[in-house]
Amino acid sequence: MTEALATTARLLITCPDRPGIVAAVTGFLYAHGANINTLDQHTTDPEGGTFFMRLEFQTPHLDLSRPALEHAFAEVVAERFAMDWRIAYAADRKKTAVLVSRHEHGLMDLLWRWVRGELYTDISMVISNHPDWREAVESFGVPFHHIPVDSASKEEAEQQMLELLDGQADLVILARYMQILSPDFVAAFPQRIINIHHSFLPAFAGADPYRQAAERGVKLIGATAHYVTAELDAGPIIEQDVIRVSHRHTTADLKALGRDIERQVLSRAVKWHLEDKIIPFANQTVVFT
Amino acid sequence: MTEALATTARLLITCPDRPGIVAAVTGFLYAHGANINTLDQHTTDPEGGTFFMRLEFQTPHLDLSRPALEHAFAEVVAERFAMDWRIAYAADRKKTAVLVSRHEHGLMDLLWRWVRGELYTDISMVISNHPDWREAVESFGVPFHHIPVDSASKEEAEQQMLELLDGQADLVILARYMQILSPDFVAAFPQRIINIHHSFLPAFAGADPYRQAAERGVKLIGATAHYVTAELDAGPIIEQDVIRVSHRHTTADLKALGRDIERQVLSRAVKWHLEDKIIPFANQTVVFT
Amino acid sequence: MTEALATTARLLITCPDRPGIVAAVTGFLYAHGANINTLDQHTTDPEGGTFFMRLEFQTPHLDLSRPALEHAFAEVVAERFAMDWRIAYAADRKKTAVLVSRHEHGLMDLLWRWVRGELYTDISMVISNHPDWREAVESFGVPFHHIPVDSASKEEAEQQMLELLDGQADLVILARYMQILSPDFVAAFPQRIINIHHSFLPAFAGADPYRQAAERGVKLIGATAHYVTAELDAGPIIEQDVIRVSHRHTTADLKALGRDIERQVLSRAVKWHLEDKIIPFANQTVVFT
Amino acid sequence: MTEALATTARLLITCPDRPGIVAAVTGFLYAHGANINTLDQHTTDPEGGTFFMRLEFQTPHLDLSRPALEHAFAEVVAERFAMDWRIAYAADRKKTAVLVSRHEHGLMDLLWRWVRGELYTDISMVISNHPDWREAVESFGVPFHHIPVDSASKEEAEQQMLELLDGQADLVILARYMQILSPDFVAAFPQRIINIHHSFLPAFAGADPYRQAAERGVKLIGATAHYVTAELDAGPIIEQDVIRVSHRHTTADLKALGRDIERQVLSRAVKWHLEDKIIPFANQTVVFT
Fold first, then answer.
1. What's the rounded mean pLDDT across residues B130-134?
2. Domain hosting residue A21, numbered range
3. pLDDT by residue (tens digit) across A79-98?
4. Which residue of D has its CA nearest to C218?
5. I need a labelling partner for D149 at 20 to 30 A (CA). Which of A90, C91, C231, D254 fits?
6. At C279, which CATH number?
7. Which of C22, C38, C58 sits opposite A26 (nearest CB)?
8. Residue B139 backbone phi and psi in degrees, to 5
9. Is beta strand D84-89 parallel, antiparallel or unpaired with respect to D95-100?
10. Quick one: which of B32, B99, B41 has its CA closest to B72?
11. What is the DSSP letter of C94?
12. Residues of B with CB below 8 A from D26's CB?
């Protein structure tokens, strides 16, 4: 970790928009010795809309401890503006678990970026309903758990996973995990499960989107990273991208081209989540890139 | 028209794939003095699939008249391979009619490209259910017909349009024409009506796709040009494109950004149609660009 | 003009970065009744770098007149932080002049967007060294001046243009104006001349970039909008975009494809300039889109 | 290898364009039992230009052995049209060597795609002037050779490499190999060395292109895969791509974003080379994708 990262804090705010918010927040931080590096804000409507803000600041010259700063912020600023807020410290590395089935390209891309230092996280484990990727995963020094799932064992399998993940997953990544998670499982990780779906949602939700795309004869195929909610493929979209295709491409070609898009879309979404750049709102996301 | 275009012919073929097609077609053309400029071919499967071919050739040294050439081709080649085929001569300029409602950006872009010589066609008329664009259209020397439509008058309006279009429209372009055409009207112009839909189909079919896109929180918006069939927004896709958007964009912003994509997607599809580069097949298109 | 635009002001700031700037600026505006809609900031380096900020705020509830507000800001905030700053009021519509030679696609696209209300400016005149586009320009109600240029008359022609432009051009757009402007002319409009160059700069600066691109065999062609400086094609870049090409495209094809990219890149750059979203810095631009 | 690939042959032709080429080639192949899967052709000018063709055909029903077929083609067709031609058999897997320096992302991406079966080749070795990637490379079962290079040892190092590569490299990939190869070395692998350059050539040739890009303030950065010739970064371009950047991106950010573009551009170029889809011509390439 660079020195800068060791002392970086991120303040994320959602509140009703009204005059004076930016002045109050930046004035508070300045008064307590925080040095703001970046500030992004967004409002759905200056009159009666919702206001979002993300600040990244340096902590070395703070005149308060972390808890005291948070306590003061709550009392002096947050309450006055009815803020939903949190401060994340970059030094508190998030724990990430990856779930995968047979298609490993997303998983391997994440592991590869992680060892290169592109993703600042601790990958605590990989869980799969297939045994295939044990050796590949363990070669990165990451624990691998094989938890088979069939219709009879599904509830038990989820229970096993929840036990493994307990305290070990600030973020759960579904890198082509092809089992549908129960609403209870999803509820255990609110806005903390990221799925990569291999289509440009809302087109081709559900099974086998590349085959659907080939049948519909679309001229672009895409991928979508989104937070998982109880409704399949319907959660807040974080990132999407597409690539041009033509009549020359078979379903197999679409899958091969799509893998590259999936890898990039997933890795961007994960990186933004780890860097606290995403604020989910209603069924959408504000992404301060 | 350049001299080359005056003597350009295009042969389009669809047939069951089997060995010897290319040799038979090119051998026939060579034997009769046709000089092939471009040849594109595609097969859905070399074993039992469907074969598509487009040849562009020069006619000055043909040893047969056009009718004789076509007759000979039918007898010598087409019958043997059970071909669905046609020859289009570039000099036979296609007639195009444009239908539009309140949003004129697609219409104006087509007219502007047309006067610049980018679209090789005769624009025979513009029909609108609103009177707004008469002056703009007539300034291009193109006849404008205002045919109002309401639920009571719809059948009569379509009848009026059919009379106007009779013999005047090898191609009908729906440049944001917001009335749904009856199956009978559509059947009068099989694979000859191109619609621009302001979304990345099959996402956001139907009304108000930019609002739908804003509500779903997608990170890219798009446009789709397709042949019109009896089922709304479900015909063979010719061309699609997208542009990146974010939480910062309101529905109004999406509309403004989308206009540029719509203009480009529609003009490409129209140009390809006019140049006989598209072969519809099942509910898809083979586009030899 | 919408009511919101009538009361919109934009504050642009460049200064050495140090703690407290955002708090001071937003605190000042809040104290005087300005309601901030959007705030963007950027720093080249929090330690000793240069800081940039753009705020858009509403003026209806200001407790000071415009001059008094500006005076107070200078005294209370700007001096303390050694700011280079300006406030632009959206209601003060900028005057724009367009210079063009033989290729009119950029000019026509600007005029077309302008009449649609997409570009909030007064187009005061079009100047061309060719007489060709007089009728097209005048049909938009815009004055057209034909000022021929040859090597002997160049100085005199520029003098004529400067007289016409005097007080009539907050922005000068070179929409494919193929004469090289003298350093004196350029100096009369610092950071107020936007040129569209038909390549992806710094590749293919100078004459005939599409021919250069065809000869080099590049797989993408592009366009670049930049502020004009004394050095040809070397000023601060505002916007760029590209489109994919292949061996199939002749130089003529590249020109046709390039026109669409040029139109979009130029119109984006002009729109951003008119909305005070660009801060030039050294030989670069900060663009707060 | 799929059964289809085992029996796939590819015929590549370059010759002066004149009537009858396609008929002669396809007639010849049909007569000898070759079943054509795909046919692509291109001409720089139907009158006196250069003609390019690529055919992919199936060999199971050939009535001649490979040598006899080639002999017959030379006599019956190639000589008549003054063709430069070759037939490649997919079953004859090409041997590939990769050269790399400190930046391993291109190398690792190639190895990863290779083990997945995306690149149909035998990777015979990796050579590096640094020892760093030995373990990573050997874990893929690929031999690794460390050949240090400094100004004094350069000639000797190239000699060592040539000995290692002798008979082992139908293709040499420079995956961020930062030593300039001598004209003699390059001449040993005509049109068989592919380099990935980390800019959109011809912009930012030479050293440190991301720093150059940051200094010039471009709004897109790119990567270029090209065949290596004696002149640095000036050989025929195979593939290019770009990604959007802004003032927010430091040189370090450009490098991180650029890595993804480099990986994709390089892997596409390598795949096309391995599938005999590229015909170099003058200083350009015809790529039949």
1. 97
2. 3-89
3. 999 999 999 999 999 999 99
4. D237
5. D254
6. 3.40.50.170
7. C22
8. -65, -20
9. unpaired
10. B32
11. P
12. 22-23, 26-27
Residue D34: the pLDDT is 94
Q: Nearest Cβ partner of B112 from C108, C116, C264?
A: C108
The string of pLDDT tens digits covering residues B13-46 is: 999 999 999 999 999 999 999 999 999 999 999 8
Nearest to D247 by CA among D215, D223, D212: D215
Chain A residues 248-277 with CB within 8 Å of chain D? 256, 260, 264
Statement: residue A2 has pLDDT above 70 = no
Question: Any CB–CB contact under 8 A between B182 and chain A?
Answer: no
Chains in contact with B, counting 3 or more C-beta pairs less than 8 Å apart as contact: A, C, D
Q: Do B178 and B128 lie in a common domain?
A: yes
By Cβ distance, the residue of B217, B246, B284 closest to A217 is B284
- Given a cut of 80, whether residue D200 has pLDDT beyond it is yes
CATH number for the domain including A61? 3.30.70.260
Q: Are residues C39 and C133 both part of a single domain?
A: no
For residue A222, give the nearest of D239, B200, B253 by alpha carbon. B200
- Spatial separation of the C-alpha atoms in residues B121 and B129, rounded to whole Å: 24
Q: In this model, does residue A149 exceed pLDDT 60?
A: yes
Please compute the mean of the pLDDT values over residues C280-289 and round it to a whole number.
Answer: 96
B-contacting residues of D 20-49, CB under 8 Å?
A: 20, 22-23, 26-27, 29-31, 35-41, 43, 46
> Is the confidence at residue A8, as pLDDT, over 70?
yes
Contact criterion met (CB below 8 Å) for A191 and A217: no
Of C84, C233, C253, C260, the active-site residue reads: C233
Question: Which amino acid makes up residue A112?
Answer: W
Q: Where does a domain end: D54, D71, D89? A: D89
- The tally of domains found in chain A comes to 2
A233 carries an active-site annotation: yes
- What is the complex's ipTM, to 2 decimals? 0.95
How many C-beta atoms surround the C-beta of residue B260 within 10 A?
20
Residue D3 confidence class, pLDDT cut points 50, 70, 90:
low
Tell me, what's the pLDDT at D2?
58
